[in-house]
Amino acid sequence: MNFRNIADLNNIILRKLSILPRDFDLIVGVPRSGMLPANLIALYLSKPFTDIHSFRNGHIYKAGERGQFIDVKDFKKILIVDDSIASGSAIIKAKELIKEVAPNFDISYCAIYVVPGKENLVDYYFESVALPRYFQWNIFNHTTLDKACFDIDGVLCVDPTEEQNDDGPLYTDFILNAAPLYIPKSKIGTLVTSRLEKYRKETEIWLERNGVKYNKLIMLDLPDMRARQKANSHGQHKANTYKLSEYNLFFESSLQQALEINKITGKPVFCTENFEMIFDAQSFAYNVKSGKYFPGLRRIALKIRNKYFKK
After folding, report:
1. How far is CA 69 from the centre of its chain?
2. What is the pLDDT of residues 267-302, one digit of tens each?
3. Is the N or C terminus of the chain more exposed, i.e. has fewer CB atoms within 10 Å?
4. Complete domains list, the chain, with CATH
5. How confident is the model at residue 70 (pLDDT cuts 50, 70, 90)?
6. Could you tell me whether strands 188-196 and 214-220 are parallel, antiparallel, or unpaired per DSSP bridges?
7. pLDDT of residue 277
8. Which residues are CB-contacts of 139 (< 8 A; sequence separation ≥ 6)?
9. φ, ψ for residue 13 (rounded to 5)?
10. Which of 139-148, 160-169, 281-290 has the lowest mean pLDDT?
């Protein structure tokens, strides 16, 4: 699996910005994921910027201005930008839309990441990245989430406070009314949570109310919070489901548990605590050079290192 975060996106644009000519009059992003790299390119080249649909309506964003309606004839050379190309269907559709409003313009096409073999679909690309791949900026909208496992607290909704986590009426109220965080539009394969089985009904009510689509919900079959704390098996509980061959990604809120799940399964884990993909818990745990991680993350990494990898 290949993973690119927003910092990777920005860095590859900066590193290879020189491949783009400087005589473009306008940068146009392909909604939605193409808007982020298009905006970055426009900022770095000091060019006006818009998206395809706004361009069709003559709405252009210029530096220091909130937006203007401008005759598209004012622009002669235009760069259309998308974040990536896989099948090529999005860029082909973009070309059709642009032809309707700018058939005689000098149009070039650009993608930051392309699948090997699809380079000829654009005039400029920044990096060839093979499938399977995930991008930080749209990972919750990936088409393969039916092969993924999701934690609930800290991923789909906020974590409970210490006061709310009373294994009683306050916790029940939290489960029913927790503020949502990252709600995917695609169906999730399996939800794997350390919530106790006795809260299944309330959890299912919240999931339905917030439009979460999923195949299975696996909870911790213990009598109460005291038994859960004594067992202290959150990472193992989640890893037991993730180990099944049908799953290729786990979404976990806790960095410590993400590292544990990766260590046990050998599979990648996307952690919402630092919004990074954990591929190798051992490498992460040893890579705690001064200044690389925030103090809290360094403490977690050292804890995992000492627990699993101390020589």
Report:
1. 33
2. 999 999 989 999 988 777 666 544 455 556 666 666
3. C
4. 2-133 (3.40.50.2020), 142-279 (3.40.50)
5. low
6. parallel
7. 94
8. 270
9. -65, -45
10. 281-290
CA 84, CA 80: separation in Å to the nearest integer? Answer: 12
CA dist., res. 299 & res. 139, Å (int): 27
Give all strands (DSSP E) within the chain, no chain letters: 2-4, 26-29, 49-51, 59-60, 68-69, 77-85, 106-114, 124-128, 133-135, 148-150, 188-196, 214-220, 249-252, 269-271, 276-278
Closest CA to 273 of 193, 154, 134: 154
Q: Return the percent helix, strand and coil in the chain, to nearest 5.
A: 40, 25, 35
pTM confidence score: 0.85
Residue 293 is encoded by which pair of tokens? 């991680």
Instruction: For residue 226, list its beta bridge partners.
Output: none
Tokens of 211: 């439009």
